[in-house]
Design goal:
With 308 residues, the chain is α+β, with helices and mostly antiparallel strands. Among the domains are: 6-47, Arc Repressor Mutant, subunit A (Orthogonal Bundle); 210-289, Dimeric alpha+beta barrel (Alpha-Beta Plaits, 2-Layer Sandwich), CATH 3.30.70.1060. The protein contains 12 helices and 10 strands. The protein has helices at residues 6-17, 23-30, 34-46, 59-62, 79-87, 114-126, 152-161, 169-176, 180-193, 225-235, 261-273, 294-305; strands at 50-57, 65-73, 94-98, 104-112, 131-138, 196-202, 210-218, 240-245, 251-258, 277-290. α2 (23-30) packs across α3 (34-46), α7 crosses α8 and α8 packs across α9.
């Protein structure tokens, strides 16, 4: 059974932000030795908690915004086939299948550029034969618009890294016929430019862990979003993972990772009883599927067109 502690959580979060972060840098953050951090990272990879490494555009580089959607169906569909059908849309990057007592239920994440693309997504989902209801909202974000072009040197390095974002500098140099010094310079420029993310997409439900998503409506007169997030982080330092707050209303879908359904029920009840919470609904995910996000697809298209 995979048991994640606060240090594992920090390592996963740092790897999600930059999967090329060094063991030495991680060691300074979590206050362990580099060897101890290395062992933890390898354990997370071996247990498939860290299973997918990739490079993507930063959202600000393509002016992308994020959304979440809850899709309810009649339940007549074959779930695995229906997930693949929804995942065929380039606007859908992740789908969790939710436990439900009636029909089918799915939680979706993805990216879009502009209102026309968001309308395209909504139309695609609502036109699926099995779909009865779609609740879609834009996620609050603070992405900065990023401009500028990649140099040929940077594109050469990125094209090689696409197959393995963890590749060592010496191997990149060998595959590109570029000196290690130039590879380091290109990587430094790419990192400082901020237009590319090196990401480890975690599978937080690996092993025997349980993923739950709690849709929380809070009272803005009693608590701000920032204070609510601080409360959740303090109360559930290991269990609370990703908050996705709506850009238009005081609502978020917060992700928690717990050891069993009894712990899930306890957290759900505690949140519901908080005096600043208007309502909460708990959704249990029993499977998930990962697809390419729009930011990854756009970067892949650029690298495919590069002949250097």
């Amino acid at each position: 059974m995979v048991r994640l502690d606060a240090i594992d959580r920090t390592i996963i979060q740092m790897a999600y932000a930059n999967c090329r972060i060094s063991y030495e840098a991680l060691a300074r953050i979590v206050k362990l030795t580099p060897n101890a951090v290395k062992n933890r990272v390898h354990n997370l990879i071996d247990s498939s908690v860290l299973a997918q490494f990739l490079i993507t555009y930063a959202p600000g580089a393509i002016n992308a915004e994020s959304y979440q959607a809850v899709v309810l169906t009649s339940g007549k569909e074959i779930s695995t086939d229906f997930v693949e059908l929804m995942g065929s849309s380039p606007l859908i990057g992740h789908i969790s299948t939710l436990a439900t007592v009636r029909g089918g239920a799915y939680l979706l994440w993805g990216e879009f550029i502009g209102t026309e693309m968001l309308h395209e997504l909504s139309t695609f989902l609502r036109n699926l034969e099995e779909v009865e209801e779609v609740d879609l909202y834009v996620v609050l974000s603070d992405h900065e618009s990023l401009e500028g072009e990649f140099s040929n040197l940077q594109l050469k390095v990125l094209k090689v890294l696409r197959s393995n974002p963890l590749m060592q500098i010496s191997e990149i140099a060998q595959k590109t016929n570029i000196s290690p010094k130039s590879v380091r310079r290109a990587l430094r420029e790419i990192t400082e430019g901020g237009k590319v993310n090196f990401i480890a997409r975690p599978d937080l439900a690996a092993g025997s862990l349980v993923n739950i998503h709690i849709r929380i409506h809070w009272n803005e007169k009693k608590i701000s979003l920032q204070k609510l997030l601080a409360w959740l982080n303090e109360k559930y330092p290991i269990e609370f993972w990703s908050p996705f707050a709506s850009a238009t209303e005081p609502m978020m879908i917060a992700e928690f990772v717990v050891e069993d359904l009894q712990e899930a029920e306890k957290i759900s009840n505690e949140i519901q009883k908080a005096e600043f919470i208007d309502s909460s609904t708990t959704m249990v995910a029993f499977s998930s599927a990962k697809f390419s996000y729009l930011s990854q697809i756009k970067l892949d298209d650029l690298l495919d067109q590069f002949d250097g």
